[in-house]
Amino acid sequence: MGKSLKSYLQFLLLLHILIQRWNPAFVCAQSGAFPAVVFIGASQSNVGVNNYFPSVARANFPPYGRDFVNGDQRGPTGRFSNGKILPDFICENFGLPFPLPYNSPDAKGEAVLQGINTASSASGWLETTDRIFGTIPGTEQVQWVRNWQRSLVDLVGASRASEIVRESPYIINLGDNDILQYFSTPPLQEKYTGEEYRKLMIDTAVSNIKDLYSGGARKFGVISAFAQGCLPVQLTLYQPTNRRQCVQKIQDFVQKYNAEYKAATQSLQSSLQGSTFYFADTFTITVDLYYNPKKYGLREETDIACCASGLFEYGPLCNSLSVGTCSNAATYFCFDAEHFTETSWRIIVNTFVEDLKKTLLA
């Protein structure tokens, strides 16, 4: 082989390698789609934050986590489900490890380089939501995230920290508990009309998202409110004799909130230079799971959860002594009366996660 031909072939090989390494699809496959991921939310995203401070809103005991497996980790972790939940399935798709709870003793040093989770069960955007249970509201969670952003500088230097903050998705999953508190608290309904209360929630969300943006965040995945009117505990509270229909007044409120919240995120994307937002519609799929369970391989009685009687128990009332708990949660819509099973979570996340990733990578 002539020297010039050999040099030319070596050049082509080098060029091919460089192109592959700069190809986004190659980068995603080799090292995850993003450098890190951050979760802000309530029990749908909580992986154990409430374990580390006085709170009754905990799930770090059986039968919670009885099907949970993450490497060598097994059993109850604080997740309100029999197994994996929303952040876990998102992280698996992103090619990233499950972020640790922000206040965990293990959440330090290199362990937090690939993200953090501040989600606190029973919390909401509003400071007063379910504080009686011991929660970390959204505004305080955002300050935790700001602390994490600043801590990266000490770990990897200012330039790399700025890149991690800028390129990482911030998955926000708050609002459901604010909505449920409104319906269960007559003084709130006397103080605010539904429209006024939704505006209060969204204004608080927008303010906190702007705070994250000021810290360098640019990629936001916003999770809609779920079909709260279809959950067993709400059926028990509001229409115990008509459990085959979701509670319409809650459903109507949630749909209006989701539409207004989505519009607010679209406005933010227009006003916050360089930002990208993806609004995940989880309402539609949770309604469909409730009304058409056979389509997804679930049992027909979606109004009854796996744990205990399945009508109203969650948190401390769903425990290892609960009588009647099902032997196999895989076919249930909900594990306890307020939270979904691992099966439902897999289905829910699969409806939006690819579009979420593509939008935030674009």
Automatic annotation (TrEMBL):
Keywords: Signal. InterPro entries: GDSL (IPR001087), GDSL_lipolytic_enzyme (IPR050592), SGNH_hydro_sf (IPR036514), SGNH_plant_lipase-like (IPR035669). Pfam families: Lipase_GDSL. Residues 1-29 form the signal peptide. Belongs to the 'GDSL' lipolytic enzyme family. This is Esterase.
